Request: fold
Amino acid sequence: DGGITQSPKYLFRKEGQNVTLSCEQNLNHDAMYWYRQDPGQGLRLIYYSQIVNDFQKGDIAEGYSVSREKKESFPLTVTSAQKNPTAFYLCASMSQGPNNQPQHFGDGTRLSIL
Amino acid sequence: QKEVEQNSGPLSVPEGAIASLNCTYSDRGSQSFFWYRQYSGKSPELIMFIYSNGDKEDGRFTAQLNKASQYVSLLIRDSQPSDSATYLCAVIGTNAGKSTFGDGTTLTVKP
Reply:
């Protein structure tokens, strides 16, 4: 089945540690996105990429880093500089063309501090 | 002013009633509008999209768009308890590469 796979489902981070969240898609979508969602809040854009080897900062990029070496993969690293990383992280992808298409979401990763 | 604003909730309606969810946006160049449903602890799922002014119906759901007023709404007819969720409005503006989401409106349908 085509879709977006995020792993792990749950992740715990120790003080001063970098952790990486995986996002893989087999929808052949050009664009991929990372969002953060805090309890009772909407989605805030961290980073997005419209093409391989290129990505842009979203609204809350500080303390995070990404790479886009393959079309299918867009991993997110939560660095030790992100002092409040506890949140629900969502990866999405979108087909780009003459008509704007909706985003498809993975099942998310819940990150907590140990 | 937020780029995308939704009516503050929570919204509670009795089973069988019409639920009305509203969304306004600030970018006049916006072309694409989406409604997502998000159950507690789950990821958002697309339920409606609309590109042109007017109404678009899909089963019990109707999306309404008024670009002059920069307003998009979602009506849910014959509301069911299974409709209880948070509804997110998303807009693709002049930067066609990304969507901007509202904070969501939480709907509770009481049996």
Observations:
- The mean pLDDT of chain B is 94.
